[in-house]
Amino acid sequence: MKTTHRYTALIAAAAATVLIAACGEKLDDSTVGQQIDNSSATVQSAATEMKNDAQVAANDMAITTKVNAALAADDQLSALKIDVDTEAGNVALTGTAPDEASRARATTLTAAVDGVVTVDNRLTVEKNS
Question: Model-level pTM greater than 0.70?
């Protein structure tokens, strides 16, 4: 997962900085205190970025849930046949719709959900056998 790699990289960078500072070697002309301050700022920045990522993910999950509910409430659309993927408010619909009118209605219903930025309707119309 992306955030796990960030934690690992941050911990490794902070540990390397502390170890080098503890050995008395300098990475550059900054003091040990300055190096620790820089490491703290880096960790703080990464924590803020991870918090923002978590908020976006939570919003995306809420949007996906609302879109699924809206599609399930429509008698012509089945939430089981439509996959809803949301990333930063951009919703992609994949699967099948019974007809072209239902496919278009899926776009309309999805766009009406609060927080949806764009709708990428990749639904295909079922072919009658």
Answer: no
